[in-house]
Design goal:
heterodimer, A: Arc Repressor Mutant, subunit A, 2 domains, 9 helices, globular, B: about 60 residues, mainly alpha, 3 helices
Chain lengths: ~200, ~60
């Protein structure tokens, strides 16, 4: 059977039973969403790379330790681990009283997929990415957090509420205001966000 | 009395969340929400370097 047809649940079980290739497939399947979530949240590429590795190493350790409850929501579980690691990082940073959130620009030409495109499309796509990233970064942190957890982590609002320690109504409210603000920003900036 | 939210003081022109109440679930259509986010954020995907993945796998 093709790997792409095997669901996450079965791959997790295969890995637990000793199939090393199963974890490779899982990482390959979700790497972009997990990495993008981390990168957009912390806005620092070197740190995002560290936390991305840390996330999957923790995922592997947890799977081996039998800590994963199989509910068919592997990606949401991984994103929750990433989210917790990000929080831990900011807590440590706060304790050390050092601010390293340099908001460094993402290397937009780092994408393997984009490097295969022609240069004009590359520039247009990167411009669109920059515009969308700017929009997201203009949201208040609480609203941005809900948007990223929902889209990249595919978390339910109950899970988002648990993860961010608020009620479901508050999580839903934050999303509602995020959408209002995003629509407002798109209109104000007169953006056309079409990818070629 | 005018209520002023201090929660999101960084961006003054944004709507605040001081009106969040139990009627919100009725006001947020999840299908439309996810559709909007999919359309908006679909292009915004970054791929990590293969070396990072290899590094993870070598430690696993």
């Amino acid at each position: 059977m093709k790997e792409s047809l095997i669901n996450d649940q079965d791959l997790v079980q295969a890995y637990i039973k000793g199939d090393q290739s199963a974890i490779e497939t899982l990482i390959s399947r979700h790497r972009s969403k997990v990495y993008t979530y981390i990168l957009l949240t912390i806005k620092n590429q070197p740190l995002a790379e560290d936390l991305f590795q840390e996330t999957f190493i923790k995922v592997i350790q947890s799977l081996r330790a039998g800590k994963y409850r199989d509910n068919g929501r592997f990606l949401s579980w991984v994103i929750r681990i990433a989210h917790n690691l990000i929080i831990d990082h900011f807590r440590k940073e706060k304790q050390m009283n050092s601010v390293s959130n340099d908001d460094s620009e993402v290397d937009l030409f780092n994408s393997k997929k984009l490097s295969d495109d022609n240069i004009e499309e590359l520039i247009v796509n990167n411009q669109i990415k920059t515009e969308i990233r700017t929009l997201i970064n203009e949201l208040p942190d609480d609203q941005k957090e809900v948007v990223l957890l929902r889209h990249y982590g595919e978390l339910s609002f109950k899970e988002i509420a648990d993860q961010t320690d608020v009620s479901i109504n508050t999580a839903l409210g934050r999303m509602r205001y995020a959408l209002i603000n995003l629509r407002k920003l798109i209109k104000e900036k007169d953006l056309s966000l079409t990818v070629y | 009395m005018v209520k002023v939210s201090t929660l999101f003081f960084r961006v003054d022109e944004f709507d605040d969340e001081s009106y969040v109440s139990s009627d919100i679930p009725d006001l947020l259509d999840l299908k439309i929400t996810d559709h909007f986010l999919d359309n908006l954020l679909k292009p915004l995907v970054y791929d990590p370097d293969d070396k990072l993945v290899q590094n993870i796998l070598s430690k696993s």
